[in-house]
Amino acid sequence: MDRLIALIACRWRMDLRRLLGTRERAMGLLLLVPGALIFSALGSMVAFGLLRGLEGAEPELVLPLASAAATGIGLFWAASPLLTGVVLSEGADVSRLMHFPIPLRALALSSLVANLAQPAALAELPILVAAAAAVAGVNAGRFPWALLGMALTFVLILACAQVAGLVLHGLSRHRRLHDVFLFLGLAAGLLLSLAPLLLLTTGPGTLAAIARALSGRDVFMISPYAWGVRAAVHAGRGEAVPALAYGLLATVGIGGAMAASAALVQRIQGGHITLGGGAVRSRGPSRAGLPGALGALVEKDLRLAWRDPGLRAVLVMGLAGPILVLFFFSRGGPSLASGTSVLLLASFLGVSTFGSNALGMERRGIALLLLFPVERWQVLVGKNIAALAFRLPSLLTLALATVFLAPLTYVPAAATIAVLTLMLSAGVDNFMSILFPVAVPGAAANPYGRAAARGRGLGAVALSLMLLLVALVLSSPFAFLAWLPALLGRPELWVLTLPLGFAGAGCVYAMLVAAAARLMEKREPEILERMLVEA
Amino acid sequence: MSEASHAIVVSGLAKVFRQKTAVDSLSFRVSRGRFFGFLGPNGAGKSTTIKMLTGLLRPTSGDASIEGHSIRGDLLEIKKIIGVLPEELPLYERLTGEEYLHFAGRMYGLSSSETRRRTDELLEFLSLSEDRGTFLLDYSQGMKKKVALAAALIHNPRVVFLDEPLNGIDPISGRIVTDLLSRMTRKGVTLFFTTHVLDVVERLCDEVAIIDHGRIVAQGSLDEIRSQRAVGRDASLEDVFLKLVDADVRRQDLTWIG
After folding, report:
1. ipTM field
2. In terms of residue numbers, what domain contains B122?
3. pLDDT tens-digit series, residues A78-93
4. Domain tally for chain B?
5. A367 at interface of B, judged by CB pairs closer than 8 A
6. CATH number of the domain bearing residue B35
7. Assigned domain for B257 exists
8. Do B210 and B246 contact (CB within 8 A), yes or no?
9. Residues 6 or more apart in contact with residue A135 via CB below 8 angstroms
10. Element (H, E) at A58
11. Segment B88-97, tens digit of pLDDT
12. Does the predicted model carry a pTM greater than 0.90?
């Protein structure tokens, strides 16, 4: 018991330090508290209202819909570390404890109890109480049993998330599998984040259709996530035998998940699960495609980005973003689906490169990069070219969509506006990267690592907004030049205005880079000090 | 000896981190073509000194010059003539060993063909040819050290800073590396070397400086240091080192052991 308490206390202390480690994080936590309270209150009201309403109007729908909801939440909870790419596994925690003589069940149990105190888990507790109150109704004697059923599902959700975390940790020992899972997880996470937009555009009919499909057959009764909830519903209705049966099933499920966790810890850490190192080898000899130091920098950044599963997911999902936004535009009727909206979208796409934090992506590699005797303007231009290259898929989808939404003559204008705003935004963002250097945490980073606990600070946020405004102001005259023929209805003028816009933006970009390079030379030691402490 | 014959001249170099003095008014000179050992206990200021000399940290006060270029002046000129093997290895882990050396060569301004030639030679020399196509992420610590060393040497530097170069390297590779370094000094390359392995220092270094709490407590050849500190001529470097840093190595037994 002492060891269990020590383990839980240690984990909570680490979690607290992670949350309060910096001013920005502490400020974020302060903002999180009212947010979590609102989430809990709203969630409780929705859960109570829906369950009471269904119990009164269509009681036969309560079990299938509650089972489906519990299963959905459970699966999302288990997959969430992978979907967000923050951490691939619980390995960061467990692997450090393996050399102590701690029983495996104590290790698994401590992790489960510690997970119960996570802010996200605590915010769910009022919802559980509200759901239990809803299914128990006016009979107060049934409430504790209903709450127990709900709690069983919740604990099972956490226990299964722990198993999922350990499975992912096992897979992460194989380099290729690690990268593939991280890529797929992040891509799925990005797609899921776009789901609300799709639901908004397709209207409430979609939600009703999903509910009808789920209630038609009670398929989720076999889902372990549903057993505790079903026990709660039966307990609320005073049906003791099914409540007891589902309660027992849920308890067995929790025990099974805990046993699976303990076994996985033992097998992974003991080296029994051998997936092979999966060391990745490059195909064929290394070739230099681009000339000079600038070429070497661009090549290096592109290679690293393509081989980093997190960046690759963002790159591939860059294709989906403009398509979805254009889909939204196209459903808005002829007023939205016009050449003007396409040119507006091109501007937004261009500004999206602001905040790409060129130097931050180097992480600890910054010490290496700045040891090379390369002119600093080359470093900045190399980083900016790579950032532009990452946006190429988005540019291509934009050009493709323009063909469908606007006259063909808009394609060069849209591409020009996107490229020149990209260029100038990247040029302005260099200053942000130099003035407030911060290492970007890698995908699947250790949540207790330094990089995960740092930010740029509130002053940097204010300056960032100012610089974003500067980027918009600087690019607007050249974007206007590209837009002018559309406004005048004289597309032939693009022959003149597009090259002029490019040339002007190019000159401004050159001035921005020259100034940023001078600033970088002056601040090099400060950049290194800040980045190396953080990374 | 004249100023021109020194590869490294350090005068009054200091670094203070939030009221804590890491390096305190260091002054020393290293002649060209010397194998210079820079020794000290953990936290003595060795790595901080190397970071300042290589332009990775700005000194709080004082100055230093490398081959006549001040570290307060044009750092790019210094970076062209030095090679650095840092203690921590911030390598690009998703590049292969070969790609990394190609990148380093081109960043030092070598042509693609010359970079390729030197890369092949370095990989062969350091027994890394078979793993040339493997990501650095999957290299062992010793292999990473060898790649970082190769990158520090690819442009034929005149001064090389090596921070714990033998950590994690197996004895065979260690001997290959130390032999190479010795041959480099004979060709006029200056080596600035930190390590905790004192027998390597005894074997290789022409001159050492011992730093403790940010200050140099002794400098010279090993014989000079022995004579300065009144230890016997047969005293090992470890004995001299422990005496100089005033190390108290006597301890009672742990009460619960045995």
Report:
1. 0.81
2. 3-244
3. 887 666 655 444 444 5
4. 1
5. yes
6. 3.40.50.300
7. no
8. no
9. A51, A55, A62, A146, A232, A233, A235, A236, A237
10. none
11. 878 888 889 9
12. no
